[in-house]
Amino acid sequence: MIEPRSGYTLPVFATASAVAALRYLQKSEKLESVEIDLITPPQKVTIPVEQIALLDNGKALGITLSDPGDNLDITANTPIWALVSLEGRKPNRETVIIEGGEGVGKQLNRQGEAAIYRYAKQILIENLQGLIDDDQQVTVKIILPEGRRLAQRTSNEAFGVVEGLSLLGTTGISQPLTAPGQLTAFQEELGRKAREFSTLVFCVGENGLDLAQKQGINPEQLVKTANWLGPLLVAAGEQGVKSLVLFGYHGKLIKLAGGVFHTHHHLADARLEILTALGAKVGLSTDRLQQLLASETTEAGLEYLRGLSDGEEIVDRVYSAIARRIDENSQDYIRKHAEKAVTVGSVLFDRNRNIITMSSSARQFLPSLKRG
């Protein structure tokens, strides 16, 4: 079997664009590629440069194209621009100043600060600082021309990032988590852990993985699933797992309540329809159901419910029904495809990583999953 190809995260291409633009300002070199130190992992890679241009105001523009590898990633082939200026260093200013331009998201919980996170800043600063003198200052504005449009197809807004994409990640390597070949690696990890534990916790993404550990759950019992929940549920049954807890963002796990077992947005959505249908099941009025269905995202739907006069009680009813349906559908899915009985519980959290609800099965299993 051909192994899925890894690629690089957005911060790497932003850095490559910035380095190419800076070198053009310094030496009038139109480089076809640049060498970038990924820092994490500690290796250097060569990134192709798509275009370099000198602008009238003494700035240079570098452009690269995102290549995340064999991932179902909406940023594939997205142009990454870096607008760079070089001048004498001003007192009390950093040598590398990083700004977010059009298409880079804004963080609502940080007064609109650009969604350029720690690793992105680190890789930019460390790769640019070595190219300038101590008395110089380089200013980099990252621009994602397609960022605002692409962000509409992500869960960014649910996590407080609006008007564009985030430059996030903790590493320069983009592992092909959604490529079909990666499923084998996930199944192998699951098999190893199933031989040691009869109860496992499935985490759809990094947020679930991090929150589960903060809840004190033994990390050895955590399995990251990416969007391969369906195949991995079946694999858990085949490997003899007796019980599972699904730990994830409600905007992802809600798909299971509607019978959708591959959670990537390229393949299926219907989240608001599922939320509205289960709202009807617990007796919400027609007016409330119409408002719920008109919400832009599941997070917005949750906030609408919370804002009702009886919001706390309504959220409890609706999300308890969602959690029960996730449990039931997951158990049925395993029984149908693996012919095994596995008890499933679910824990759903919101964009602030606060737990909304957990099913009765999850409440039963969680104490035994705690470390020590």
Automatic annotation (TrEMBL):
Q: Which Pfam families match?
A: CbiD
Q: Which GO terms describe its biological process?
A: anaerobic cobalamin biosynthetic process; methylation
> What UniProt keywords are attached to this protein's entry?
Cobalamin biosynthesis, Methyltransferase, S-adenosyl-L-methionine, Transferase
- State the SUPFAM superfamilies in the record: CbiD-like
Question: GO molecular function, one example?
Answer: cobalt-precorrin-5B C1-methyltransferase activity
InterPro entries assigned: CbiD (IPR002748), CbiD_sf (IPR036074)
- The reply on keyword S-adenosyl-L-methionine is yes
Q: In which pathway does it act?
A: Cofactor biosynthesis; adenosylcobalamin biosynthesis; cob(II)yrinate a,c-diamide from sirohydrochlorin (anaerobic route): step 6/10
Which reaction is the catalytic activity of this chain? Co-precorrin-5B + S-adenosyl-L-methionine = Co-precorrin-6A + S-adenosyl-L-homocysteine
Q: Per its UniProt entry, what is the enzyme's top EC class, as one word?
A: transferase
Tell me yes or no: is S-adenosyl-L-methionine among this UniProt entry's keywords: yes
Q: Where is the signal peptide?
A: none
Q: Which domain of life is it from?
A: Bacteria
What family is reported? Belongs to the CbiD family.
PANTHER family to which the protein is assigned, alphabetical: COBALT-PRECORRIN-5B C(1)-METHYLTRANSFERASE
Q: What is this protein called?
A: Cobalt-precorrin-5B C(1)-methyltransferase
Species per Swiss-Prot/TrEMBL record: Dactylococcopsis salina (strain PCC 8305) (Myxobactron salinum)
* Gene name tied to this protein: cbiD
